[in-house]
Amino acid sequence: MRGWKSLIVFLLLVAAAAFAGATSAPDAWFAALEKPSFNPPGWLFGPVWTMLYILMAVAAWRVYRKRGFEIAVGAWLAQLAVNAAWTPLFFGMHRIDLALLDILVLDVLVLATIVLFWRRDRVAAALMLPYLAWIAFATVLNASILKLNPM
């Protein structure tokens, strides 16, 4: 099952990660936090994450089509699981510190996934670059919120 139908599986996997995040939306606790001046408006996150999840799914699917389920796709699944944990940690448990640790691990896993994808499909690796840029920004944002709101 390496044809177009398998793309649906990857889209469903990113949808599951998105759903995990949607279960812990920003609330009054988050609204009360002090935030840095570069904190994006809330409306931006939905469209950005939708685009990133689609790019991530297509990237993994491209590698899967060429190589099947192997280490690169396994790394992609690992980063997706870590990605799914961030929102419940930050918004659900109000653990800015644990969310920062999570996103630092995510940064490393996404970078490793990109390197593995590059060796298999350079287009797939390139499709992951906007995601890496966004989570790098999110890492700085997370760290700044923690600094402004010590736990």
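The record above closes out task 2.4. Task 2.5 opens with a second protein, given below.
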Amino acid sequence: MPEKKLLIVDYDRNSLESLVSLFKPYEFKILTATDGQTAYELFQREQPNCVILEAMLPKLHGFDLCQRIYEESKGDVPVVIVTGLYKGPQYRKEALRSFGASAYFEKPYDRNKLVATVLDLIQEEMEIQEDLPSPEKVTVLLDELFDKVKTEENKGGT
């Protein structure tokens, strides 16, 4: 199984380091950036499994970055916003609804809840990728099912 990548973005070095140390025990390749533009370039180059970002970022705002990642990955790469600035339900709602964020945490955040959320999102993303059969396989399975139904009908079964 390919290594899982986590991109963590925060302009504040202490916050960045604290987030990195939170995810160090897990088997992730951790990528970091301190501004939105660098984060966006890293996202495009590295294709991380999940992105954690502060909403307030220099060069490219966190909400805009979140929206770009959501649109370009067609929602496949979960983005978790962790912010100290944008507090309140209106920001949370907008981030989740308008910008495609998968989760929204305000600083100070519950460390266990954040880790659990990120692990769930990455696990979900990996399972979706692994479990879905290809469209061709679905077509074959449906054809087999229809043939079976037809055969049963011809036998006079129910």
